[in-house]
Design a protein that fits this description.
Blueprint (H helix, E strand, L loop, with lengths): L6 H7 L9 E11 L3 E2 L6 H12 L7 E8 L2 E6 L4 H15 L4 E11 L5 E4 L4 E6 L2 E6 L4 H9 L3 E2 L15
Parallel strand pairs: 2-4, 3-5, 6-9
Antiparallel strand pairs: 1-5, 3-4, 6-7, 7-8
Helix pairs in contact: 1-4, 2-3
């Protein structure tokens, strides 16, 4: 199932649903469908024009740098946050889309597996919790209303108080 949520919201939600043990370093290069890459709008018209010209003239365009997030057996790509590389990759993706391309060359640095069923969210307090062997671990507070809605749409259940959850070892007061 592909989500039709804005890419910016998905891009911010995915890292919240990943533990370090659920990530594997890859550093592989291959072709990726542009529709799977979650990016915002280009920031520099000059860079976009330069990238578009190179794509149209069929220059050998370098691979974009990305991280792959797996959610319910679907893969999504988020550009690596390496400053210049991320900005350059953003413009290459936008140029390829404008030129009607379907695939782009990508270097995938890390695979992350998102597991929304291991998380609970308290919508009233805007707090995200993760289930561990010892109970519930605090992850993030002060989530925006949009983040709460996106996490709920991605499958994160609401925290319930006063009764025990399945596989729950502690109660949150």
């Amino acid at each position: 199932m592909r989500y039709t949520l804005p890419p910016e919201l998905l891009r911010l939600a995915f890292p919240l649903l990943v533990r370090s043990e659920d990530s594997v370093a890859r550093n592989t290069v291959g072709r990726v469908a542009l529709r799977k890459i979650l990016v915002g709008a280009p920031t520099s018209p000059e860079k976009l024009a330069r990238c578009k010209r190179r794509v149209e003239e069929r220059w050998a365009v370098p691979a974009i740098h990305a991280e792959r997030f797996w959610l319910y057996n679907q893969d999504y790509y988020v550009l690596s946050e390496d400053g210049y590389l991320a900005e350059d990759s953003l413009h290459r993706v936008a140029a390829a889309r404008q030129c009607g391309h379907v695939l782009i060359l990508a270097r995938v640095h890390v695979d992350h597996w998102c597991k929304p069923n291991m998380y609970r969210i308290d919508p009233a307090k805007a707090i995200l919790w993760r289930q561990t062997n010892d109970g519930w671990q605090f992850i993030k507070s002060e989530l925006t209303t949009e983040q709460v809605q996106v996490l709920r749409l991605l499958g994160v259940s609401a925290m319930t108080y006063g009764r025990r959850l399945p596989n729950d070892t502690i109660r949150i007061p």
